[in-house]
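Hi everyone,

Forwarding the result from last night's run.
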Amino acid sequence: METSEDIKAMVRDKYATIANQSKTMNAASCCGATGCGEGVDYTIFSENYSKLDGYVADADLGLGCGIPTQYARIKKGDTVLDLGSGAGNDCFVARTLAGESGKIIGVDMTEAMIDKARENAEKLNFNNVEFRLGEIEKLPLSANRVDVVLSNCVLNLVPDKQKAFAEILRVLKPGGHFSISDVVTSGPLPESTRKVAELYAGCVSGAIQEADYLGIIAKTGFVNVRVEKKKQIEIPEEILAQYMDAGALAELRASGAGIFSITVYGEKASEACCAPGCCN
């Protein structure tokens, strides 16, 4: 049985490899998994950032499943934290929104990603963007430090999601908020389908039911939580047919289950809570 440390080591090793790949290679899936065949468009998760202000092509590895800055309500002068910041894509977009008076902090547990992000920031002479090596379950920041937390297709890979959201609550200032894009499941997804999905799009690994995901957020103590965007992930039937027989495909169609990318917004209460959950 895999432990939390085993999962982290696997993710760290995978993303160290991804850091040195091109966006084209990584677009084979949101997590840079190997493609399943020739002549098929595998970019089913990632969104097009290229027209956004602050977009930096060298920082876009095609790893996301949404655009969390779109719903983050970032203001000039804000301190913004990006969890699982990769090569810096969302950080650089956030910097444009926060302006020169803002502060952008990216945290990633993979040294190769931190190195790549710092290299990108240095090329651009950005002096208000920094990248720190660390884990989401134990963030290298003091409490009540940031105005906005972002994350893009990363928290589903974190073994202890309750602890991750507790850390987000800790580092946010009272009245601060998060905007997080992630992958969730809905309905009784057949095990055979999950296995195929994980081969096809690695970010499905670690995904949990949407209701459970939102339940963790509520239990942590966040308020005004809402799903801002939801998109079903469609795996082409010709791909499924390579790994599933007719019976398994019929089981999938009848199940009503699905895989979704969602962007969730939530706030830390302006007044301190006595305990997790008491602000609800």
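The CA atoms of residues 187 and 257 lie 4 Å apart.

Cheers,
N.
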